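#structure-requests
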Amino acid sequence: MDNYKNPSLPVEERVKDLLSRMTLEEKAAQMDMIRGVELAEKVHKAHFCAVDENSGFQWDKVRESCGERGMGFVHDVYSVPAVLNRLQKYMVEETRLGIPCIFTGEALHGLSYPGATVFPMPINLGAAFDPGLTQEVGAAIAAETRSLGIHEILAPNLDLAREPRWGRVEETFGEDTYLSSCMAYAIVTGEQGGDISRPDKVAAEPKHYCVHGIPEGGTNCSPARVGRREIETDYLPVFEAGVKKAGAYNAMASYNCIDGEAVICSRRYLRRILKERYGLKGYVRADFGAVNRLKTSHHMTADSKESIRMAVDGGLDVQGFDFSNSFWEKSLVSLVEEGKLEESVMDEAVSRVLRVKFELGLFENPYTEETHYKDVVRCEKHRMLSLRAARESMVLLQNKGGLLPLRGVKSIALLGPSSGHQRIGSYSSVPYGYKVPSLYEELKKAAGDDIVIRQCDGCGISDRDISLVPESWYEDGVELTFYNNDHFEGEPAGTNRMEYINFNWILAKPHRDLEFTGYSVKMKCMLHVDTHVFTEADEIKGRLVFTTGDSVRVMVDGKCVIDSFGDHKQKLPGCEFLFVNGAVHEVEIEYVCDVNGNDLTLSMDFHDSSLEKAVALAEECDMTILVCGDDKVTSGEGMDRCDLKLYGKQKELVERVGALGKPSVLVLENGKPVDLRDETESMDAILVAWFGGELGAKAIAEALFGKINPSGRLPISFPKSVGHIPCYYSRLPGGSREYLEGNINALFPFGFGLSYTEFTYRDLVIEKREEKYSYRAAVKVRNAGERFGTEVVQLYINDLLSSVVRPDRLLKGFCRVDLEPGEEKEVEFLLDFDSFKLLNLDMEWVVEPGEFEIIIGSSSADTGLSRIITVEE
């Protein structure tokens, strides 16, 4: 038996043996990744990165791409285990050395598999201040992922979100180092569980190492202007918690630069810190596009091959999708053969990849059991966990006159673009086989027959706030006719019938006999309109939209309503359209692939977007609930903003409803902080729900009616305006505290959140313990109100005299405590070296003797109870 196939031998011995048998070409392939969906015969109808559950593979493409050398990783092949096993069988049985591939997937808050559980976003988990919950969510995501045959996930996101304009705030745990470090440890241990060979665990890959959450100007990929001390004290500790302490196997290197140093080729960041100091066990993968940015954005190389050399020599082990497989692999081989890259550097990278494969147990168990996933994916336990996360993460910012929870209300006007459509955030699982309920649906359930609820969107969020025309509207599916020319003439190349119009023809041709571009397609269908899928209204004055960058015409009942052809293409092809409940329309579509194929959808602006109608409903009802915030255009990767006010017509809607003087609640489904200066004046209550996952609407309804008591706290400060950025609570002191327009304080600070009850604190006690720098801090917390509630007790430390400038206070402990009315509990915190340490002028971690103020309260701005202690040398 070859030593690498002997499971009784140590992993390192097996890695060494296998490496010794590999050619340069085989080594390069292990540092490479391919998209599985491009090799499949049939793409999943609900997700263009997923593979149909009955699909085979185009084996000629597989052989062309992988040959006998194999492939390190396969991404974007979300499907059932039987499908993945077919591809894995090729890797194991038809490559020279039989090295299994690692199946890779996105799983930020649920695997991107059609039908997996949609958990709340990471910003929700940060707001919950509950590491135990975060660990459970990580474990649930891992269990679903591995049950489907995927071995590693490109998550979690451990960036510190200190730039509120940045679109990816929603992916993070917030602005604070201590909170984010706790969450990093929790989610990685939940995902990996200490043994990644288990059938319910995966290898985690934290990103975006290591300073990406404070991009200059708030725009994605931008440089981080930050000093070395701040990197070491604020940003690196979060990755240390995820990698060194929790043991995350891998890491994704960011595509930005830090103080002019490109991370993707930095020996200091990738080798000396990540691999040597933190002991990264696995590999470093490039964020997609990062390597070629050395040429295109950073202007550090003149050609792509040199970019590859610089990155791999600096410590990169695996590419994302910068280059074709052929270019990446041939470049690596030729760089070694030309003496420009030491083979030992490639050997180190390949050894890291192989080590993870052995640790995953893939050589002994390359295949996944093919039916178990049915008992795991979106099981009741995971759905209830998703609901719990949504419940715990809601933050009550304002509640004038105790308007919430609602009582004595006879009629409610439910308005806003998210009132009839629940937002779930980016990098999400794809709801498939079930419908995500809206707040309108959940409020009607909760209210029963006692309260009349009238709904109207009033506006959309953005011009791309659209949804697919529902599958249920298609009476007999869609008839497609394909032509191998751009003018719909001659003998058709073929025909097909699909269930509805949602195609991705970037990755594959719609018919095997077509050329890759220049073909045309005719589509015909009958649409039966059912507006009640979205709203209670029988008519919606909205838009019909056909998303594509290619040429398209849409005819409805014989009339051309969208003409986006040739030189007259629209950016978002669409037209105004009146959707009448019960109407039946004949739709004909002419499409020409004259660019390069596109993600094609027949969509609609489903919003009942009459501001006047919405305001009229508000006038007629006892009170109003407005549901506003973000969509995938105003929040998400690459969706950065230069303003934090409610986008589009939402602000006008809130202003006009507020001017009526009736009781009003603003619910926010948002991915980042919102400028709420005006809304705090016009609204009685404000509830931040973030992106609460598939059961987020249910949690909101429960909070509004008082079935649950909001207990979330802000994991990121809400500034008064864009001009008040930066506004994170742990800024260094020394500057003026005032602008001409007022003080610099956040409108709502980090850690802030109200409850339906009141909490009091007393008897702060601090005791020295035997160990050096060890203390016990305890405080008694009482529920002084009349209903059950959960308080998030927060401990901050202020170093009163130090050799370097430090923030006035830093979070060093927190605890969720459940209290019945009148109940009191003692909450304790244990402090140690890490609680008091600073990075001195010699860049050494030390505790400087002297006075420290211990502050315990309900937010970063709460003076609460405090004591000064003297820490001796």
